[in-house]
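Need a sequence for this fold. Nothing fancy.
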């Protein structure tokens, strides 16, 4: 049975921002500015309505929207709601049909808010699901790609309102190559509406209830702060996660290249991890973590960097020397850790000659 629809409040926006930033695993962009924009829209009477994916008719048409590019560039050159929303009527004109709802491309970080902004501006309900269950850097790293659904058509708009339609692509890998190249040319950031999805596809080929998960995580952090409890520990307990490492950032190296933010961070351990070091590599998102040179965690498990005091997430574009951090692992949606999922989002897809072994494997076994 489908859950009843609900309307987000200003407090919900704040909670969702906390949770989506944590689920972003370092990527997706800081949601701060999108929260401010959503609050402005809400003050003008616009609504952020959320519906259960199971309430969709099988033939309903759903727009899937998100930003593309390097998180650091997104923060410097903001893509606001109206630019993102403009990709939807552009798609409607191309396909000759109207959308009945909008959904998230990825729940992670600022991208978790793009469907909310578009829904408010176009008066479309937001479906409680996304196509990643976290954040990933590439268009072919989605549940739609894993399930073999078509990658086209695709609309793209940049800050100057340059408008591009990718009418067809042989597969998701080609769509990623084409859109990434163009995104890089126009400044490494763009607003996009991905291939339209039917209600049946949304119900069978997405990560369900991830918007609710972000709200739940955010509320967990807020409650822990009010009650002067450890917010990181509260999230780990509430989401069935694991604490991998506690320490201080001693080095952060990053560069923006080919439309991604790549780099590594080094963390010297404290408390029980005193005398040990963790290194984490990222491509927009945290991908592989090593403890003293040994693999500690890899994608698709969620590797989350959190402020040890506040419980706030720390992104790959905001991590800096001297921060006291806790590295947390959260379970990935089962579709990502399946055999077909690992062919799209496993460590080898990021260039690492590693077999995926979930840090939660013993728990499952």
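Here you go.
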């Amino acid at each position: 049975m489908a859950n009843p629809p609900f309307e987000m409040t200003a407090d919900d926006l704040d909670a969702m921002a906390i949770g989506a930033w944590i689920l972003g695993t370092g990527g997706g962009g800081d949601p701060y500015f999108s929260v401010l924009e959503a609050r402005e829209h809400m003050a003008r009477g616009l609504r952020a309505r959320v519906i259960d994916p199971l309430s969709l008719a099988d033939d309903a048409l759903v727009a899937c929207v998100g930003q593309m590019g390097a998180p650091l560039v997104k923060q410097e050159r903001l893509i606001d709601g109206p630019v993102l929303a403009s990709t939807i009527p552009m798609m409607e004109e191309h396909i000759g049909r109207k959308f009945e709802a909008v959904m998230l491309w990825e729940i992670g970080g600022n991208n978790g808010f793009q469907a909310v902004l578009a829904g408010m501006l176009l008066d479309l309900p937001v479906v409680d699901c996304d196509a990643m269950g976290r954040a990933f850097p590439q268009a072919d790293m989605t549940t739609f790609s894993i399930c073999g659904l078509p990658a086209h058509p695709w609309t793209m708009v940049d800050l100057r309102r340059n408008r591009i339609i990718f009418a067809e692509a042989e597969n998701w890998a080609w769509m990623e190559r084409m859109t990434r190249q163009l995104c890089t040319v126009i400044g490494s950031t763009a607003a996009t509406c991905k291939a339209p999805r039917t209600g049946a596809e949304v119900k069978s080929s997405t990560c369900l209830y991830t918007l609710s998960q972000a709200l739940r995580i955010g509320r967990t952090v807020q409650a822990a702060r009010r009650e002067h409890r450890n917010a990181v520990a509260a999230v780990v307990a509430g989401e069935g996660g694991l604490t991998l490492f506690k320490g201080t950032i001693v080095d952060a190296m990053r560069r923006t290249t080919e439309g991604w933010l790549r780099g590594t961070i080094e963390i010297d351990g404290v408390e029980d991890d005193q005398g040990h070091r963790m290194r984490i590599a990222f491509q927009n998102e945290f991908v592989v973590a090593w403890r003293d040179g040994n693999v500690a965690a890899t994608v698709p498990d969620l590797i989350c960097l959190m402020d040890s005091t506040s419980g706030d997430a720390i992104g790959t574009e905001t991590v800096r020397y001297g921060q006291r951090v806790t590295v947390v692992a959260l379970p990935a949606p089962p579709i990502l850790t399946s055999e077909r999922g690992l062919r799209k989002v496993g460590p080898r897809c990021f260039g690492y000659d590693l077999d995926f072994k979930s840090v939660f494997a013993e728990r499952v076994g």
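For context: The chain has a mean pLDDT of 93.
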